[in-house]
Design brief:
A 7-stranded mixed sheet has the order 4-3-2-1-5-6-7, with helices on both faces. The radius of gyration is 22 Å and the shape is globular. By secondary structure, the chain is α/β, with parallel strands linked by helices. It contains 11 helices and 7 strands.
Length: 291
């Protein structure tokens, strides 16, 4: 059942949405690769083997670590998270949004849905702010060595996590719960209470779902805005702006306005549904019973 208090979900891609580059790049450089060369090699491996690109990069990372004798475990990857460079304002963004939520008397939950690595994300200074981080992840053996790919997130599978957040089926193993039919007004976080942040083509499926179901999708960009302008023209997003998360900046002001709208709209929507059900019950009582 939905909370008596309005819950708003802010859902973020990570690479080039919150961070200035791919999160794996610092680790790739430790392997002696220029990032562009590694990604070219990984993508070629995917093409050659008719393989998902995300599975390919996870395979190539593990293989190169083995070939070059580079120690690799969860803690090594987590340490990379501390090297991530963020866009302006990101480090103070979450506290600012949470303060705004208190002013509006709503609950805000932050989520990441990324094709990057969960281990790296867990090591970032902003990991503590997220209710859930969905990303690619290895399974480790008793020696803490990666032996298998535990989870993989690509641009289409990203959408399942939007529905998980919507229904409150947050654990990946909860297949039955996420597929279970739940009436719209009984879902934990309605789509219209979601804001999705992304920067590129891999975010389009999530952006489209959130927008079409009444939520709000935002495209961010660092230098050139060609991609987000195309998204706007194609009806994928509601708004776009520079990736500056500073309090008082354009992005903050826009999100604050949307959150205020959600804080006002959701209780009204629920009241309307309650009154409709009451009216329906009353009218059904008045209908003559079938003989």
């Amino acid at each position: 059942m939905p909370s008596k208090k309005t819950i708003i979900a802010l859902v973020y891609d990570f690479d080039k949405t919150l961070s200035t580059s791919e999160m794996q790049n610092p680790f790739i450089e430790r392997l002696g690769y220029e990032p562009d060369a590694f990604w070219e090699m990984s993508n070629e491996f995917a093409k050659k083997n008719n393989m998902d690109k995300n599975l390919a990069y996870l395979h190539c990372l593990k293989k190169e670590c083995s070939n070059k004798g580079v120690p690799v475990n969860r803690e090594v990857f987590k340490a990379v998270g501390k090297e991530i460079e963020f866009y302006p304002g990101v480090l103070k963004w979450f506290d600012a949004i949470d303060r705004l939520a208190k002013e509006l008397n709503v609950i805000v939950e932050h989520y990441i849905v990324s094709s990057g690595m969960k281990e790296i994300l867990d090591g970032t200074p902003i990991a503590k702010y997220f209710k859930k981080i969905y990303a690619c992840e290895y399974q480790y053996d008793e020696n803490k060595v990666p032996v298998w790919v535990k989870n993989v997130v690509n641009y289409t599978s990203k959408t399942q996590f939007i529905f998980r957040i919507n229904k409150g089926a947050l654990e990946i193993w909860e297949d039955d719960k996420v597929n279970e039919f739940v009436y719209h007004d009984e879902r934990r976080i309605p789509f219209e209470n979601m804001i999705y942040f992304g920067d590129g083509a891999t975010d389009i499926p999530c952006m489209k779902i959130v927008k079409e179901y009444g939520g709000h999708s935002i495209g961010v960009y660092s230098d050139k805005d060609d991609t987000v302008r195309k998204m706007m023209y194609d009806g994928r997003i509601d708004f776009f702006c520079k990736a500056d998360y500073s309090v008082g900046g354009e992005l903050y002001k826009h999100v604050a306005t949307v959150m205020k709208m959600m804080a006002l709209r959701y209780p009204l929507t629920m009241d309307t549904k309650k009154q409709f059900k009451a009216a329906e019950k009353s009218i059904n009582k008045q209908k003559p019973k079938k003989k």
